[in-house]
Amino acid sequence: METQPQQDAESGSALPTTPCSVVWSRGHAYVLEGFRARWVGRDDRGRPHAITGAEMQRRGWTLTHTA
């Protein structure tokens, strides 16, 4: 099985733009909501959390879950 290379904001990679794309940030999965162009996930307490693409870039992100 081939794995995708890890991408993150530090390497200058652009966030995915396809609706329902999944990225990981700070140990949490976020899904791109296409009609609102925001990333939606859960915070440390399990509450819904939405952030913009610019905020996701500042926080750092990867395509794979890392420990």
From TrEMBL:
Stretch list, region Disordered: 1-20
Official protein name in the record: Uncharacterized protein
